[in-house]
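WARN no homologs supplied; continuing
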Amino acid sequence: MDNKLKREKLIKRLKAKKPLLADGAMGTLLHERGVGFDQCFDELNLTNPSLVADIHREYIEAGSEIILTNTFGANRYKLSRHGLEDKVTAINNAGVELTRRVVLASFKEIFIAGDVGPLGVRLAPFGRVQPEQARDIFKEQINALYESDVDLLVIETITDLYEIREAISAAQSLNADIPIVASMTFTRDDCTLLGDNPIKVVNTISNYGADVIGVNCSGGPNQLLRLLKKMHQALPEGIFWIKPNAGWPEQVSGRIFYPASPEYFGNYALAFWKRGAKIMGGCCGTTPAHIAAMDKAIQSNTTKVIFNDLEIKTVEAEVLKEEAQEPTKFSQKLTQGKFIFTIEMDPPRGLSTHKILAGASLLAEAGADAIDIADSPMARMRMSPWAICNLIQKHINIETVLHFPTRGRNLLRVQGDLLAAHALGVRNVFVVMGDPTAIGDYPEAMDNYDLAPSGLIKLIKQRFNQGIDHAGSEIGQPTSFFVGCALNLAAPDPEREMKVLQRKIRKGTDFILTQPIYDVTILENFLKQYRVFSKKIEVPIIIGVLPLVSAQHAAFLHQEVPGIDIPEKVYQQLQSSGDEGAKLGIKQAIDLIHQLKQVAQGVYLMPAFSRFDYAAEIIDKCSG
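OK structure emitted
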C-alpha cells in the first residue's frame, strides 16, 4: 500500500470507534533473552537485528496493529553513554528498516511507529540542558525516523512537560505529515515527577499540538485507567493512547519481576476503550501474551469491564496539643500487653501537609495507638518521613513509628539520620530493607547500603542505646529508641525467613510488623513452625491488615502488588457484594482482627486509597 494512503487510513482508524492495539515491552523481552541492562538495546538494530525482529514478529502474531521501532533510547545523549553518539541516524534508520521487513513478511496491515524516549537529562530550570539544546537533540533523532518513513511518531515515557514540549516542537518543525503521539508517565501519586496532575498534562499537551495524548509506564492497568478517566473528562474530544506496566515491579534475586497476568490485562481492555483510549498496549513487564489477551477482549467484546470509581475523601480537622518528649507510650502499651492499633500513612509528595495532619487527627480521635510513616514507599520521591513524624507528634496527640530503610544509606548517613530522628523526638523506629531504587522514580540513584536490617537493629540497640556510635565513640548520652523489624508470614522460603527473624530478635528487636494477611491460619501456622525451628516468639507481633473495598481492589492487590495473596474465598465474597464491597471489606477486617486478638498483640492497618475513615471505623468496632 502507498505510504500516504496507509497514513490516511491510520488517521481514519484513530477517529473510528474500535481501538488500535499497539505492542508491549521491548526491553523486558530483550533482557529475558540475555541482553544485560548495561548494554545498549538500540544498538541491537545494527549488531543483532534478528533478535529485535523476532520480538516484533511475536507481537504481530499476538494481534498488535502498531509496532514501535527499537529506538526508545536512540538519541545523542543516551547513545553517548555507550560511545555511539555518532550513530544516531544509522541506529534509527536500521530500527525502522528491520521493523518494515517484519511487517512486510507478516502480510498484515501494520503501522510502524517511530519510538522516541526521554533524553535522559534534566532540562532547565531543573537541569543544565537548555530547551533549544534539547529540541536540537530530539530533532536529530526524529528526522532520522521521518527519513525512514514511519507511519506515526510516538514520544513516550516523558516525565517533564518542558521536555515533551521540545520534543513536539522538534517534530513539528520537520513538517512531516504523520500523527504525533505524546505520552507522559506518572508517579504513584497520579502526578508527574515534577508534580503536574493529569488534567494539567492533557490540557498542556493538547495546546502543544499533539494529535494523540497518552500515558504509559507508570503503574499497572488500575492506575492508568484512573488517569485515563481524568484525562478523558478534561478533554472529551481527545484521542488517547495508553500502555500500562504489568503492575508494580518487585526485585527477586537481582531481577525485576512484574506480577500482573495477561488475563488481568485482558480484563481492562474494554475499560480502556470505554474511557476513550483509541490505542492501547503494554509497557514494562508486558509480553506478547498480555497483548494477545487484550486482543481477545477487544475482538470478543465480552470482557467484564473493571472500574474503580471510589472517591477519596479527606478529613479536615484542627491540630491538637504539643506532645511532651518522654519515653514512648507505644512501647509501654506493648510491654503492658495491650492490644494496639497502628496505622500506615505515606508522606505527601509536595509541600502541603494539611491532609496528612487531618487524617492523623481523625485516627488519634478514633483511638489509634501510633501512626506509621513510610519512607519513600515503592522508591518514589516523597517528603522526608522525619518531617511528618515531627509534625504529627508536635501537633497531634499521637506517637509515630518512623520507617527506616537501610537501602541507599551508608554508615555515616545511617548514624546521622538516627541522631536527627532522636533530636526531633522520634523514638519508635521500624527497620526495613526498603524498596530497590530500580523500581522507583530514580532508577539510577544509589542503591548501596552498609548495614542489613539485622545490623542496623544491632547498631541501635547495642550501640546508640548504650551511648556510643558504630566505632565505639561516645555520642554524649544514650538514645532511647524502640525498634521494630519486618516479617513476611507467607514468605516463599519459610526457613530462611525464620532464620532472619531469629537473627533480628537476637540483635534486640522490640516488636515485629508483618505483611498484610487475610487468614489467621497463616499466622498460626508460622508460629507453630517457628516453635519447632527455635522457640516461642516472645517479641510482640503486630499483624498487617489491609481492608479491601471491592473485588476490583482485591484483584489489583493480588495481581499487581508483590507479597499480597488474596484467598479465593475472600475474593468471591467481594464479587458477590456488588456496591457493598467497602462495607464487606471493613467487616472482613473486623472479623480477622477479632481472631488475631487471640494470637497477636496488635494490628498494623494499611487503609487503601487513604480512606482513614474506614480505619477509624475498624478501630471503633474492634476496641475494648
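The chain has a mean pLDDT of 88.
OK
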